[in-house]
Fold this protein.
Amino acid sequence: MNSKQEKLEAFGRLLDIMDDLREQCPWDRKQTLQTLRHLTLEEVYELSDALLEEDLQEIKKELGDVLLHLVFYAKIGSEKNAFDMADVINSLNEKLIFRHPHIYGDVKVQDEEEVKQNWEKLKLKEGNSSVLSGVSKGTPSMVKAFRIQEKVKGVGFEFHDAEDAWKKVDEELAEFHAETDLEKKEQELGDVFFSLINYARISGINPDSALEKTNNKFISRFQRMEKLARKKNLSLSDMNLEEMDLLWEEAKKI
């Protein structure tokens, strides 16, 4: 592994390269905070894929791509005389020190849960009017629900255990099935999803990761089913559901 000095030199070189690109490359010169935004989201999702697959070489590559975007935003900030990379890092350092008084102060904690509770209380001291003020509006719905539940847990708004959380799932399912108005049924379905996410979280399961793994599993099995159909000179569009189910079960065994 590289020494601390080597890491600092590598980061300094990246900053120098960013300066060169911003000055000399037509594409890099043209970019703005807004034109980079959707590209950044794409890079983060690619990193997410690599993390789910635990592909360390791909993670290294995608981390580099995300880091490039962070450096790019800091460079644009410096051009606007608003902030530079040192300001970004110093602000982060100060926040981390403030939010870890059990490391940099005299606060005592028993476990991870106490750390999380202190974290949310300290955020309120920083001027946040609500424990939910830090939840991004642009966060995907499932991740947002998970973060909302984690944050309110930090102030004690939480079911006692997973069993109690599952009772809420049953309650919401019953309300969903009882509703006949489509608009209200949609609202009830949202409540079902929210309660399921809560149950998963309390049970120690990340629902977003669980669903993404199921998505990938389904894609893999369906593509195997398509290959089986081609080998048998069959077309899925010409098959009925029962015939496709037989292929599906065969694909599951591969």
About this structure: The chain has a mean pLDDT of 93. DSSP finds twelve helices and no strands in the chain.
